[in-house]
Structures are given as C-alpha cells and as structure tokens.
Amino acid sequence: MNLKKIRLALIGGGNMGAALAAGLVTSKKMRPAQIRVVDVRPEILRSLKKRYGVSVGSDNAAAVRGSDVVLLCVKPQQMASVLAGLLGAVTPKQLVISIAAGIKTDFIESELGQHVPVIRVMPNTPALLRAGALVYCLGQHATKTHEALAKQILSSVGSVWKTGELSMDAVTALSGSGPAYVFYLAECLAKAGAELGLEPGFAEALARQTVFGAGRMLHEDKETPARLRERVTSPGGTTEAALRVMAESGFEGILKRALAQARRRSEELSRR
Ligand SMILES: NC(=O)c1ccc[n+]([C@@H]2O[C@H](COP(=O)([O-])OP(=O)(O)OC[C@H]3O[C@@H](n4cnc5c(N)ncnc54)[C@H](OP(=O)(O)O)[C@@H]3O)[C@@H](O)[C@H]2O)c1
After folding, report:
1. C-alpha distances in Å from residue 73, one per residue of 176, 210, 223, 251
2. Distance from C-alpha of 18 to C-alpha of 13, rounded to nearest angstrom
3. pLDDT-based confidence at 270, cuts 50/70/90?
4. Distance (Å, whole) CA 21 – CA 15
5. Which one is the CATH code of 8-171: 3.40.50.720, 1.10.3720.10, 3.40.50.300, 3.10.350.10?
6. Most buried residue, 43, 60, 122, 235, by most Cβ within 10 Å?
C-alpha cells in the first residue's frame, strides 16, 4: 500500500493523535485531505483542521467506513466502547493501528469480531516533537504489507522498532514511561545545583540544557552510552567523584527496580 494513496481515519485527536496527524502532514508523507480526525471534543477538531488542514468529523464508524487505515488514539479506558462502536464498520481489508497502552492485539481482534489486521504501538511523548520512540508488535492477521505501511506512518513522529507482544510491558517501562525519568533527573539536578548555592532558575536552566545537550550527543554520536560517559570522566576528576557516589548509592539498582515495578504495573493494567 502506498501511503500517498491511503485514507486514514484517526480516532482521538488528543496529545498523541494530534502529534501523529501533525507529523504526517508536516513531513508531507500524507496530504491533509487523506486524513480524517474524529474526536468527541469540537475544539480539538477545530484546532486540528485550522492548523493542519485535515478533515474532521464526529462519527467514528462513518470515518472508518471510508478509510484504509484506522489509527486508534483514544485512552485505554475508552477503547472498549470505541471498538464496540466500530463493530461491523471495520473489515479485514483495513488495517487497525492502536497506540493505547496495555490494550493487547487479541483484545482488539476479538472486539472487532473478524480477521482484522491489527498493529499495536507504544509511543512516547517526544513524538510531539517528532522525536518519539515508537515500538510496535503485530497482531495475528497483520502481514508484511501492513507492517510496512504502519512503519511509514509511525516514522513521521520518531524512530520505530519492532518487538514481540510479550515485550510490550518492558518497552512501556523503558521508553513509554522513560521521558518522565529524564524529566525527574533534570528536576533532581536542578535541586542539587540550588543546594550548592546556585540561583534556582539558573540551576534549572543549566539542568535543562545539560540533559538536552547530552541527549543530542546520545542521538548523534554512534558511541555507546558507557563510552560517552567514560570520555568525559577523567581519572581523579570531578565527574569521577560524582559517579562514584552514584554507583556506591546504588543508582543502577534503583533504575532496575523502578523499571521492574513499571513493567509489573503495565502487566496489571493490561490484565484489566
Ligand atoms: N501521551 C503519552 O505520553 C502516551 C504515551 C504512550 C501511549 N499513549 C497512548 O496514547 C493514547 C492517547 O493518549 P493521549 O495522551 O493522546 O490522550 P488524550 O489527549 O486524552 O486524547 C484522546 C482523545 O480522544 C477523545 N475521545 C474520547 N472518547 C472518544 C470517542 N469515543 N471517539 C473519539 N474520540 C474520543 C478524548 O476526548 P476526552 O478527553 O473528552 O475523553 C481525547 O480528546 C492512549 O491510549 C495512551 O495510552 C500516550
């Protein structure tokens, strides 16, 4: 399927839905007229239409009937009722992509009641800046053609990887929740700087720019994170002194326990 020829129904134009619509239009992967966004909030529809020129509507089933790909961007707790409303409107000729956290492909398949191709995705918030990490897994009826199409769509808002569905809870714990860990790191750095006597606003500005700059180095430099760290850690220097305190205080172990807990929570939420 050629992305320039498909019609996309995007259900739920909130944070992530809007980011995907924006990414597809601004990257010129799709023309605005190919995208129909449906949401229960008229203000969201007005804004998306004005900003990106996409077509909008308030009838999920009608939008889906006229589409090749259905992109489900509603909250996980809204998925069951949205899928119930799409029963009979979605056919196996279409591709359904869901970004709802914790909603498994077999749930979507069984709710839609036919052999519908489904692809599940875990995005993260930097997708809003087209710098997301997006990980997908295939439902049982999704083919290579569906996969290639989904990759084209998702890559409009970031980098894309494939995994098995069993890994989706671990992915959620790492990249799905990960931006919050980095924000927390920046928050803690700013507080620590302020405790050293720096003016709090100045400390926060330094923390933000440091995380941003280090993030860019991780993105642009092909070295491993460990090598990048070693490159800026002179023996006997200040960085080494700080890193020793972090290692002795169990920094790595804290992150391992935090991610394990996030994965457990993701598993619990998926079971509900
Ligand atoms: N944001 C993230 O960082 C992130 C990360 C990973 C995964 N995700 C996943 O992305 C999905 C969307 O998250 P979000 O943060 O973009 O949520 P959001 O901002 O709440 O967007 C969802 C939109 O869908 C609307 N909606 C509710 N019921 C609907 C219906 N029946 N038909 C059409 N539209 C409906 C909502 O309206 P109301 O507000 O009135 O309900 C809202 O405007 C979630 O499933 C989440 O798990 C998000």
Report:
1. 15, 33, 35, 35
2. 5
3. confident
4. 10
5. 3.40.50.720
6. 122
Tell me the whole-structure pTM to 2 decimals: 0.94
Mutate which of 39, 98, 104, 125 for ligand 1? The one with the most ligand atoms within 8 Å of its CB, which is: 39
Cross-strand partners of 35: 8
In this structure, which residue's CA is closest to atom 48 in ligand 1? 16
76 lines ligand 1 (CB under 6 A): yes
* Tens of pLDDT, residues 67-102: 999 999 999 999 999 999 999 999 999 999 999 999
Q: Is 60 in the pocket of ligand 1 (CB under 6 A)?
A: yes
61 CB-contact burial (10 Å; exposed 0-12 / middle 13-18 / buried 19+): middle
CATH number of this structure's domain 176-271? 1.10.3730.10
